[in-house]
């Protein structure tokens, strides 16, 4: 296992931090949540903290934290449109929580579900587009689609900043919808079985805000990002080490080449739940070696 930190300039510690998507990266089945918690705690005990960055809702992520038996820690929800933070350690620079649940507060970075709902109805009716909002499906179909049992499936409908939809049209129609949404300052990003409509908030931008509030300057944190789909792209492409997960029967998503001024190591791994995730993370860290100190 790679060391969690290395000496940086002036003797400061440079630490690996893992940032991971949840579904089809850390988890394959909801019943694996306790095992996922164990994997995350193992890394934490070795000095490598993990921050979760998911398309799940705030309520879903609070439930995940509890079911995984994780210590209070920040997380990203709805693809970075929101940040969850333990209320007992609320950052001084952060706005007041827009919602509180158990020991967490939600910071919504953009998006109004009612506005999104109304706009999507209008665009569907006027453009003859074929899609369904997730909330429009009957509950059995929702459970089958997202693979959750009650009450967790109901938490997936508690949107604070985005609106997921099930696309039932062709790629050309999806591109037309994307152009229309762009004119409204919105975007549609694919993630797993759903297309998420929201303001242009991504996981990389939200992570930068979290690290700022945590007091982790860029030169003191080396990031390993884990993800599997388009809604993870910005996060993966901004990391020092990108670990792209994929099913055994499909190739991994291709990332853009790294910029010369921001080198990046990219590795792929077959998704298989928490044990496979931990093995892939540990192997990537061993290969990468100690966290790199900043350039002189």
Folded structure, characterized:
- The protein is of the alpha/beta class and 296 residues long.
- It has helices at residues 33-45, 58-67, 113-127, 139-146, 152-155, 171-182, 203-214, 233-238, 274-288; strands spanning 5-7, 13-20, 50-53, 75-77, 82-86, 99-101, 104-108, 131-133, 163-167, 187-191, 194-198, 221-227, 241-246, 265-270.
- It is globular and about 55 Å long.
- The model is unreliable at 1-13 (pLDDT under 50).
Give a short synopsis of this structure.
The protein is α/β, with parallel strands linked by helices.
Features:
disordered N terminus, alpha/beta, about 300 residues, 10-stranded mixed beta sheet
Give me the secondary-structure topology.
Layout: E1 5-7, E2 13-20, H1 33-45, E3 50-53, H2 58-67, E4 75-77, E5 82-86, E6 99-101, E7 104-108, H3 113-127, E8 131-133, H4 139-146, H5 152-155, E9 163-167, H6 171-182, E10 187-191, E11 194-198, H7 203-214, E12 221-227, H8 233-238, E13 241-246, E14 265-270, H9 274-288
Parallel strand pairs: 2-3, 2-12, 3-4, 12-13, 13-14
Antiparallel strand pairs: 1-2, 4-5, 5-7, 6-7, 8-9, 9-11, 10-11
Structural class category: alpha/beta
Tally of helical runs: 9
Mind telling me the C-alpha Rg?
19 Å
Question: Element order, helices and strands?
Answer: EEHEHEEEEHEHHEHEEHEHEEH
Instruction: Report how far the terminal alpha carbons are from each other.
Output: 27 Å
Q: What share of residues is helical?
A: 25-40%
């Amino acid at each position: 296992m790679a060391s969690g930190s290395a000496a940086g300039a002036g003797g400061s510690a440079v630490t690996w931090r893992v940032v991971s998507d949840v579904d089809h990266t850390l988890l394959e089945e909801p019943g694996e949540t306790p095992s996922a918690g164990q994997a995350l705690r193992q890394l934490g005990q070795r000095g490598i903290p993990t921050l979760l960055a998911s398309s799940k809702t705030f309520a879903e992520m609070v439930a995940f934290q509890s079911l995984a038996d994780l210590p209070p820690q920040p997380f990203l929800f709805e693809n970075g449109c929101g940040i969850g933070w333990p209320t007992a350690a609320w950052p001084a620079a952060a706005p007041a929580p827009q919602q509180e649940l158990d020991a967490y507060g939600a910071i919504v970075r953009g998006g109004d579900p009612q506005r999104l709902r109304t706009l999507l109805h209008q665009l569907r009716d006027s453009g003859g587009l074929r899609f369904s909002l997730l909330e429009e499906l009957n509950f059995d179909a929702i459970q089958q689609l997202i693979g959750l049992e009650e009450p967790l499936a109901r938490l997936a409908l508690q949107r604070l900043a985005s609106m997921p939809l099930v696309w039932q049209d062709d790629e050309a129609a999806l591109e037309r919808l994307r152009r229309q949404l762009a004119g409204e300052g919105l975007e549609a990003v694919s993630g797993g079985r759903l297309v998420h409509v929201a303001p242009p908030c991504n996981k990389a931008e939200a992570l930068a805000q979290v690290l700022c509030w945590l007091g982790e300057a860029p030169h003191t944190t080396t990031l390993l990002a884990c993800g599997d789909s388009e809604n993870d792209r910005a996060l993966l492409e901004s990391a020092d080490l990108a670990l792209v997960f994929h099913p055994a029967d499909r190739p991994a998503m291709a990332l853009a080449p790294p910029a010369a001024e921001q080198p990046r190591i990219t590795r792929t791994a077959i998704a298989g739940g928490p044990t496979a995730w931990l093995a892939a993370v540990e192997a990537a860290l061993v290969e990468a070696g100690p966290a790199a100190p900043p350039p002189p």
